[in-house]
Amino acid sequence: MVKDILSQIKYKFSQIRFNRNKEVKKELIESFGKIKIDDTFDFERISKYFKNRDHSKMHQVLSDKTCNDLDFEDLFVLVDHTKSKVGQQYLYNRLRTIELDKSQTKLNEEVIDVLLENTELRISTQQKLLKLKNEEAYYISELFQEEHAKPPKWLFIIKLLSITSSGLMVLSFINPLFFFGLLGVFCINFVIHFWNKKNLAEYISSIPQLLRLNAVASDLNKNVDIKRLNLNIDKSIRVIKQVKSRMSFFQLETRLQGEFEIILWFLFEIFKTVFLLEPLLLFDVLKKLDKKRHEIEEVFQFVGHTDMLIAIASLRSGLETYCIPTILSENRIIASEIYHPLIINCEANSITINEKSILLTGSNMSGKTSFIRAIGLNVITGLTINTCFAKSFAFPLLKIFSAIRISDDLMNDRSYYFEEVLTIKKIIEEGEKHDNNLFLLDEIFKGTNTVERVAAGKAVLSAIARNNNIVLVSTHDVELTDMLSGEYELYHFSEVLNEKNIGFDYKLKMGKLENRNAIRILDINGYPKDVVNEALAISNALDNLKNR
């Protein structure tokens, strides 16, 4: 009878698991190629691994300034198709660090092709990765990137009290009087036990998640194609498993959280207090993990890398147009039907940049800055995840710097112009290092008067266009187009006007903008006739003075 009941319970649980796995599988199939719509993005925790990592060997680390200029966080939301928090952190780090490794890129593409062709493998891999979707997985990186809590100098007293408790408990069965001694020691242990809670709190998330990470890595490693991402990962997995039994103690702590487990939790707390298990095990585990930082990071990267490759495959599947970039040895850019990935139904444009940099003119909202950002974002995604939002895109290994979105620094009492001066000074300094740089600038020195803006702008733009640097800059100052025509190719965006409204085709056109429509736009938008007429008269007078 009892056996039959147990069999029925077991069958029901297996059915529940089967149905749940079936629902998860269906969701994974339907969500492939689509952006996350229900997720919130906690960039403070997503960027945690990136901020603490050593990037000294990278070709470039994208600055906060450039990320802000190019709307990097919005790009990340678009690109992030990961299923684990580890993969999310790994992808964020990858997008912000430029390191060209042709052999690794080739291997990545081979694994991506396998994941795209083998749907069952992709789904089963994603199901494993979902085990690390809990936000507590964000804290795994702390175990190999940050200093661990140090044991107190009086740790030997904790060990002595634990041994004393054990002895008194045994003696209590012989003589009940020893039980009172046990109660006295328990009171001391109680204080130490709850003193240690602040240390435990730092690791109650990360240590159990490390166990889960290692288990996921072990499962992923069974596939021959995924294993190729790190052929030596077995060693790191085994090293972490050596501490598994001790770490499992902290995993049990996190499981005793439900209503029915409250009694078990209470009894478990008493047991731990009597023998001071928490501080003894915690500092013992931390001591061992401190010597295994390299292995923990290797496992972290192995799992994160796998998740990132599936995310790239998913991203590409959801795009109507994308390409794998061609990295050139010569210093030129060839873009065919390139577009800004964050603009819905963005107009695609094509351009070839050879010996000269690019100077863009055009009215506000015509597409100048969006085009500059499109080039910058595509260079970043091309060099990091080998994916570009274009029909084809070829460019050299570049470092990217920008001066697009500048604001006052009120905390340091700096004006807009002063902030602009400091930003462009850094660009000049980078331009003198003889690296291949891509400089993205929008309306240079717009924080000062016209005469000095044009003079300083010409001098700076001439300087930064040297030494194999590629510059894309927009301006409203038509004077710069004449001064820089020998050093920059001229392009423009233009609006389409009729009697009642203004429109834009967002198409890149060769040459400088010949038509000026700013005053005409005032007229279309209902400005008083006397204001429009006076503006036209002054504009004509200034043109006559300039042409004398």
UniProtKB/TrEMBL annotation:
SUPFAM superfamilies: P-loop containing nucleoside triphosphate hydrolases. The keyword Transmembrane applies. InterPro entries: DNA_mismatch_repair_MutS_C, MutS, P-loop_NTPase. GO terms for biological process: mismatch repair. Residues 355-540 form the DNA mismatch repair proteins mutS family domain. Gene3D superfamilies: P-loop containing nucleotide triphosphate hydrolases. Keywords: ATP-binding, DNA-binding, Membrane, Nucleotide-binding, Transmembrane, Transmembrane helix. GO terms for molecular function: ATP binding; ATP-dependent DNA damage sensor activity; mismatched DNA binding. This is DNA mismatch repair protein MutS. The chain crosses the membrane at residues 168-195, 262-283.
